[in-house]
Amino acid sequence: MNTRKKGAEYEQKAQQYLKSQGVRIIESNYRNRQGEIDIIGRDGEYLVFFEVKYRRDNEKGNPEEAVTYSKQRKICQVADYYRMFNGIGDFTPVRYDVVAICGNELKWYRNAFEHIYR
Predict the structure, then answer these.
(1) pLDDT, position 1
(2) pLDDT at residue 90, rounded to an integer
(3) Kind of pairing, strands 46-55 and 94-102?
(4) What's the distance, CA 39 to chain centroid?
(5) Candidate CATH numbers 3.20.20.150, 3.60.130.10, 3.40.50.300, 3.40.1350.10; the one for domain 3-109
(6) Using the 8-state DSSP alphabet, how is residue 59 labeled?
(7) Running DSSP on this structure, what letter comes out for residue 113?
(8) For the chain, domain boundaries
(9) What is the mean pLDDT of the chain?
(10) Residue 10: count of CB within 10 angstroms of its CB
(11) DSSP 8-state assignment for residue 73
């Protein structure tokens, strides 16, 4: 199975889990010139930008460790554009979460990182 197909499979698994936890999925695989966000959803009052990371095992580190500072910065840039394009103002609470899947174990890290300004 190629990497993109495997990624899509685990993003789907993450979406199903998030829905079961009450998250309303707005978009998946949102792309613009700055990059991509795996899942955008609503969790209560929060607009949440989710990054999904999968590892077969933790031999090369835990999946959440792959969300580096530069990846976080890129996610924030894409999120800023999404908010601007969709008219979502500064008073809407925003959160950046990570869904880490290692083998069959899924962990949801709420508020995994703060917004990074350019």
Answers:
(1) 57
(2) 87
(3) parallel
(4) 5
(5) 3.40.1350.10
(6) G
(7) S
(8) 3-109
(9) 92
(10) 18
(11) H
For residue 5 the two structure tokens come to 């197909």
Helix/strand number for the chain, H first, E second: 2, 5
Predicted structure pTM score: 0.92
Q: Which amino acid is at 26?
A: I
Q: Which residues contact 30 (CB under 8 A, 6 or more apart)?
A: 36, 37, 40, 78, 82
For 59-78, what is the mean pLDDT? 91
Phi, psi of 8 (to 5 degrees): -65, -40
Burial class (CB in 10 A: 0-12, 13-18, 19+), 101: buried
Q: Which residues, including other chains, have CB under 8 Å from residue 52's CB and lie 6 or more apart? A: 7, 10, 11, 14, 38, 39, 98, 99, 101
Residues 25-57: pLDDT tens digits?
999 999 999 899 999 999 999 999 999 999 888
Termini Cα distance of the chain: 36
Is residue 59 scored above 80 in pLDDT? no
